[in-house]
Design a protein that fits this description.
Layout: E1 3-4, H1 17-37, H2 44-50, E2 53-54, H3 67-85, H4 88-96, H5 104-110, H6 123-130, E3 137-139, E4 144-146, E5 150-158, E6 161-168, H7 172-190, H8 199-217, H9 220-233, E7 243-246, E8 250-254, E9 258-260, H10 261-269, H11 279-295, E10 297-299, E11 307-310, E12 318-319, E13 325-327, H12 330-342, H13 347-350, H14 353-362, E14 365-366, H15 370-382, E15 394-395, H16 400-422, H17 433-445
Antiparallel strand pairs: 1-2, 3-5, 4-5, 5-6, 6-8, 7-8, 9-11, 10-13, 11-12, 14-15
Helix pairs in contact: 1-2, 1-3, 1-7, 3-4, 3-5, 7-8, 11-17, 12-17, 14-15, 15-16
């Protein structure tokens, strides 16, 4: 394996936007060569990658790879590179890792980004960040879990109550904003390839809509406000940790006992038959998200590390991480209502291509043909096998928070059922469980 040197926060590597883009493009160029040729013929991208990933050349084959091995190598290159960069690439892998319709290599490597990674902020940075809370807070550096924006310290008490402390990585806001430009650029760069058609539109819409949310997501006082409001809104419905204290770069909150969906997923992969996230608990999860959307404010980052099965009952749901929240605007209210009212809830409706074309049009998603409308709906909303990107002419950026939410949850449904069945449960995936929850809640209340 290549030697992965993780970002040196103390030297400000997270802020090197131009250099990050050059590195990211070299990774994409190498991946394209592996995909098309089964090997790398032009070693310029490899030399550029080697400046960030020492020993990456040792991963490259001497002979032409089979298709499964091509996918595995591409996934490994993308994973190592994403972990080298931190930030937005980790978010992207968390999302793509749920795509159960992609080759195994991508699921295998990207799922590693779901729960924890090896990014670590320096101890002196953490000490300085948490010192403002004074004697009310006691903490140890280890154990901790690290994510794309922050790391969470687990051995913490607040006024003798069990707590966790979330500390933002240095420079992460500047790095995230630079990476949004890179994401848009790379979408345009690869769009001419058949397998990447639609990347320019999809990634451009995401970049436009995510830019203002990055500013909010890197201000933990705003996250604390979102968390307090949703804790009150979901009281008696879902478990949301109580906020104890917050600054712009640190957040101290109640520790909730239980297992995240990422932890449960890993246990299933290890062969443990844990009875979490069965059909009723999943329906409860989707209903909670639909209720938040209809209430006008929702947590918009439901990857498995942010969803919990708390120790409070068989069907209980806990939610974590409220940095990426969406406060529904009047324009979004109309789009989200159109989504819920028009959402198909049966195979017959879902396979009506003309109906899907009109439905997508009402959502601000423009496609060329009814067949493309079907493929786009399969990818974005039905959780079915589909291309990597939807081949669309345009996507209204205002729709993207709901689009990502439904895409995450529909893939979650598929992946959980697949893994539960593998350890002996008799589940069946319901392609319309998420859509039905949203139709029931939003069409009536929004």
């Amino acid at each position: 394996m290549a030697e992965t040197r993780f970002p040196d926060f103390t030297n400000g590597e997270m802020k090197l936007g131009d250099e990050r883009q050059v590195f990211a493009k070299s990774v994409v160029d190498a991946a394209i060569q592996v995909y098309v040729n089964g090997r790398v013929n032009d070693y310029l991208p490899v030399r550029l990658m080697g400046q960030w990933l020492r020993g990456v050349d040792r991963l490259l084959p001497d002979s032409t790879l089979s298709w499964p091995d091509r996918h595995r190598l591409i996934a490994e290159l993308l994973y190592l590179s994403g972990m080298r960069l931190g930030g937005l690439p980790i978010k992207a892998m968390q999302f793509v890792g749920l795509r159960d319709d992609l080759p195994d290599g991508y699921q295998q490597w990207f799922s590693k980004a779901q729960e924890d990674n090896k990014l670590r902020s320096p101890a002196d940075h953490v000490q300085k960040t948490l010192a403002v809370f004074g004697p009310n807070l006691t903490w140890s550096y280890e154990p901790l879990k690290s994510a794309s924006i922050a790391q969470v310290h687990l051995d913490v008490t607040w006024e003798r109550r069990a707590a966790v402390a979330k500390v933002q990585h240095p420079h992460v806001k500047d790095q995230y904003l630079a990476d949004l430009d890179t994401m848009k650029y790379l979408g345009e760069y690869v769009n001419h390839h058949d397998e990447a058609k639609g990347a320019a539109v999809m990634l451009g819409a995401l970049a436009e809509k995510l830019r203002p949310t990055v500013v909010a997501e890197t201000d933990f006082t705003k996250e604390a406000e979102n968390q307090r409001k949703l804790r009150e809104f979901l009281q008696g419905i879902a478990t949301v940790p109580e906020v104890f204290a917050a600054t712009t770069t640190a957040l101290v909150m109640e520790r909730v006992n239980g297992m995240t969906a990422a932890q449960v997923t890993q246990a299933w992969k290890d062969g443990e038959k844990l009875d979490h996230f069965g059909p009723r608990q999943r329906r409860n999860l989707y209903s909670i998200y639909a209720r938040m959307v209809s209430g006008g404010r929702f947590q918009a980052d439901p990857h498995p590390g942010n969803i919990m099965s708390p120790n409070e009952g068989a069907d209980a749901i806990g939610l974590l991480d409220f940095g990426q929240c969406c406060e529904v605007t009047p324009q979004q209210k109309n789009l989200f209502h159109a989504f819920a009212v028009g959402a198909p809830t049966s195979e017959f409706e879902a396979n009506n291509q003309e109906r899907n074309l009109e439905w997508l049009k009402s959502l601000g998603i423009e496609v060329h043909t009814p067949e493309q409308a079907q493929a786009t709906a399969n990818l974005l909303f039905f959780g079915q096998k589909s291309p990597m990107f939807p081949d669309t002419k345009a996507i209204d950026p205002e729709l993207t928070p709901l689009l990502l939410l439904v895409l995450y949850l529909s893939r979650f449904e598929n992946k959980v059922v697949e893994l539960r069945k593998a350890v002996g449960f008799e589940d069946e995936a319901n392609s319309f469980a998420v859509l039905m929850a949203f139709r029931n809640q939003i069409a009536v209340n929004l």
